[in-house]
## 1
Amino acid sequence: MVAMDSDLQTPRIVHPTARIVTGRVVRLLEGYPREVRVGQPVLVVVLAAAGVAGLLVALVRTVLSAGSGGARRRFKDLKKGPEYLVTPVRLRDTAGRLCEVELHGHLPQSALHPADHVQVTLRRQRDPDLPPKIERIVNLTTGQLLTPRTATIWSHLGPPLLLQAALGALLLAAVAACSALT
C-alpha cells in the first residue's frame, strides 16, 4: 500500500503589488479575447456630430448623383466594442514567488519565451480580482523593449467616423456662432 502525502505543497500564485517586477518567464498561458467597453454617452455624441456632417454629405451626393457611399456600421456593432487578446503570463520573481500578470494585445511571436529574464512595468486593473496588466516589458535576455498595444475606443470607431464627427461639430459650432451674431 502506497501512503499518500497530504502535505504536498502546490506553488501559490500571487498577483504582484509592486509597479516593477523583475524575474523569469515561467509560462505563457493560452490567450483569450476580452472586449473593450464603449460608453454609450461617448458613442451618442460622436454619432450625433457625425450625423450632422453625414446629412450635409448626403445632400451633396443627392445633388451630384454620386451614388451610394460605403457601408455604415450599426449602432449595436459600434457599441459592442473591439476585442483584444489577453494572455496570462506566469513569472518567477527574484524572491522566488510565482506571479501571474496579464499581457493585453499582441507582441511579435519571437519577443517573449519561457526562461527569458524580464523586467515588467505593471498597472492595476479596475477589477481587483484580475492580475495586474503589463504596460511595458524589458526583455533582459534579448535586450528588447516591448510595449503591447490593444484596440481603443477611438481605433474601433475609426478615422472616417471621427473625422465626420469633427466636421459635424464644426458645422454645429458655425451655425451656433452665426445665429448668435444675428
## 2
Amino acid sequence: MSKTKKAEFRPNDYVVYPAHGVGRIVSIEEQEIAGIRLELFVISFEKDKMTLRVPTAKATEIGMRSLSTPDVVSKAMTTLKGKAKVKRAMWSRRAQEYEQKINSGDLIAIAEVVRDLHRADDQREQSYSERQLYEAALERLTREVAAVSGSDEVAAARQVDEMLVSRAA
C-alpha cells in the first residue's frame, strides 16, 4: 500500500465528500477490521451531527476532495446567473440526474441544479421533490462557498441568493 496518497489530507482540513458535502477531518486513526489494519480519516459533518470513517487509501478513489478553489467558486456563482436549462424529460428522469449531480461532489454541477430548480416568488409552485432537491443542492453549495471564503453560511447564502435574484431581473 503506497503511503504517498494520504498526504493530501490532514487533520483539520475541510474536505468535500460526494454524498455528504463539506466535512472536517478530525483525525487519522488506525483500526483493525476483519484482521486487516486500516488507516482511516475520521471526518465530522457538524451540521448533520455525523461522523464518517473513510479508509485513507480509498479517499480519492471515492471522490473525496479538497475544497474548491476560489476560482471554481466564482465559476459556480457565474453558473447561477445563467438561464435555467430544464429538459423536457419526465420528472423522474430529471430528478435522477439532479440527484447524481448533487452527489457528484462537483460544485459546478451542484450550482447547475440550484440554477435549474430555483423559483422566483412569482413563478409556479415547486413540487415537494423539486423543493427537496433544490434545498439539498443549495445547502451543499452554500456550505462549500462558506468554507472556501471563510465566511459563515448566512453570508454565503446571501451571496448565492443575490446571484439567483440578479438573474431574475
## 3
Amino acid sequence: MAAADHLEVPRRHGLFMHHGIDLGDGSVAHYLEGEQILRSPLEEFCLGETPRVISYDDADPSGQTLRRAMSRIGEQRYNLLFNNCEHFAVWCKTGQHRSSQVERALGSGALGALAMGQMLPAALLATVRLLLQRGLSMEQGAGVARRALAELTSLRERLQARLERELQQMEQWWQRESNSDALPRLQAQSLADQLAAVDELEGQLKRLLGESDKAE
C-alpha cells in the first residue's frame, strides 16, 4: 500500500465494502457511515480485516488525490445512495462521483423498467415517446418537450423528498441489523431508480431540443 491508494475492506461480514484513501502516514481518510469524513489510524479503518488496493487505469496524480481527501475531512453529508464512502474514495482518485456498489444494487435500464406513465400525465408521456421515436419536426413538438421537462423538474423534487425520508428509515434498519424489515431498503432503491429514469428522460429530451434548435 502507498499514499493515495484507494483501500477497501469488508464490513458486516462481507455484506458491503468500506472504502477510504491511504494518506501515507498510517492513517486513512474515509466516510464513517452516517457521520462524517474522518482521518483514522489504519487499524481502526480495517477493524481486523485485510485491506485491498483498488486499481485504476485513469487515476489522477497522487498529490491531487491526497489534496482532495484532506479538503473534505470533517464533512457531514453522508448519504447511502448519493454520497457514501465509495463515492468519496472514487472522487478523490478520479474526480468522478460514483459508487459501483450503488450502481450494481440499482441495476441498469431504469427507464424501460419503470412505470413512468403512473407518474406523468399519460397523454403527455405518450406524446413524448412519439417525439423520441420520430424526432421534432414542428414547433408544437418542441413545446411538448419543454412542458415535459418542466413536469420532470417537479417530479424530481417530489421523488427526492420521498427518498430522503426512506433513507432515514434505512439508517434505522442498518442499526437494527435485521433482515425482517427490508421494505425501506427496497422502497429507497425504487425511488432511486425513478430518479435515474427522470435523468435519462431529461437527457433525451434536452438532446432532442438541441437537435431541433440546430436544425432551425
